[in-house]
Amino acid sequence: MMKEQLQKIKEQASAEIAALSDTKALDDLRVKFLGKKGELTAILKQMGQLSAEERPVMGQLANDVRTALENAINEKASALRAAITEQRLKTEAVDVTMPGKKRSIGVRHPLNIVLDDLKAIFRGMGYTVVDGPEVEEVKYVFDMLNTDEGHPAREKSDTFYISDTTLLRTQTSSVQIRTMLKEKPPIAIISPGRVYRPDAVDGTHSPIFHQCEGLVIDKNITFGDLKGTLENFAKSLYGNDVKLRFRPHHFPYTEPSAEVDLSCFKCGGKGCSLCKGEGWIEMLGSGVVHPQVLKNCGIDPDEYSGFAFGIGLERIAMMRYNIDDMRLLYENDARFLSQFRC
Ligand code: DAH
Question: Which residues in the chain belong to E strands, given as ranges?
Fold first, then answer.
């Protein structure tokens, strides 16, 4: 009776092992037949009911069945593992002859190339590079720069006011005031950064653009120092052949003031499409710091004088790289930017 049961278990288990095809099912089967509450164990528990002669015979038989099942399960386990490995080798195979993935390295933005050159040139002349806030106080952008209440630059249509006393700075000139309030002369700084004006976007306008401010304050600084400095700057940037033209202008914070043109570096001054036949290209505003501005910052104009300038970075980049539409600088089209790999 028990012999038949054992035999039946062996056959049933063998059939099930042969039929199953995953390791989870095999584990379940192991528990079902050989586990503590398994079918084989249940039979062994009945051994007590057997006679003293039958017991060793059945014991032996039960052990044989257990060993046979264990072996069959182990064999099946290795077969399943081998099949899994085989499958993975097939599906995860790496074809080492396939071309690799190309990773392209980014390049500096043309505005940053220009800015880095500018910083290097002015650092070479002993200037320090300083930073200033873009959300700025009206008194630093206008009042202390000697720009009175009625000045058109302050108008709502030309500015992004945040409140009556704060705005998005329209020029980096505010950093002049911040610097003079903080530091004693001699001062020689440049301060590049973003500025904001409510201009509609087109090929030459953007509501956000970049300037680089410059300020020098010391004893006996003259317009001649400004000219020499800007000439050195322009030649470093565009080569020794470039010429400068100072045109009288008005800025409230400088006296005298000048706008500075450079000879067109495409045609050398003859007139071409880049300079629109002029031979000259406007580059920056500048002048001798107005005595009132020095006074506003607690610097004695009888003891000190200085010069200041403000350069448009977009213009320099566009001229240098012959870029005819300012929007290209902001669209971050990789086809455009990748041309500046150097
Ligand atoms: N702030 C002027 C502008 O935005 C540029 C400028 C002109 C800056 C004369 C100066 C300066 O420091 O002295 O157009």
Answer: 128-129, 135-137, 160-161, 166-168, 187-196, 208-218, 244-251, 254-263, 280-289, 305-312
Of 67, 73, 65, which is closest to residue 17 (Cα–Cα)?
73
- For ligand 1, is residue 306 a contact (CB within 6 Å)? no
Residues 6 or more apart in contact with residue 58 via CB below 8 angstroms: 2, 3, 6, 47, 50
The atom number, within ligand 1, closest to the CA of 311 reads 5
CA proximity to 118, closest of 266, 232, 240, 27: 232
Question: Looking at residues 177-195, what average pLDDT do you find?
Answer: 98
Does residue 200 surpass a pLDDT of 80? yes
Q: Give the position, in ligand 1's atom list, of the atom nearest the Cα of 195.
A: 4
* DSSP-assigned letters across all residues of 51-106: -TTHHHHHHHHHHHHHHHHHHHHHHHHHHHHHHHHHHHHHHT---TTSPPPP-PPP
Query: Average of pLDDT values for 121-135?
Result: 98
Structure tokens at 47: 């051994």
Assign 189 a pLDDT band (cuts: 50, 70, 90).
very high
pTM of the model: 0.73
Pocket test for ligand 1, best of 172, 257, 286 (most atoms within 8 A of CB): 286
Best residue among 253, 288, 292 to mutate for probing ligand 1's pocket (most ligand atoms within 8 Å of CB) is 253
Query: Which residue has tokens 């690799």?
Result: 100
Say how many C-beta atoms besides its own lie within 10 A of residue 200's C-beta: 7
**How many Cβ atoms are within 10 Å of 292's Cβ, its own excluded?**
15
- How far, in Å, from the CA of 151 to the mean position of ligand 1? 15
Cross-strand partners of 161: 167
Report the share of the chain in percent with pLDDT over 90.
74
Each residue of 77-118: pLDDT tens digit? 999 999 999 999 988 888 889 898 888 888 999 999 999 999
| Direct distance between the N- and C-terminal alpha carbons of the chain, in angstroms, rounded to an integer | 91
Query: What is the rounded distance in angstroms from the CA atom of residue 58 to the CA atom of residue 6?
Result: 9
Measured from the Cα of 307, ligand 1's closest atom is 13
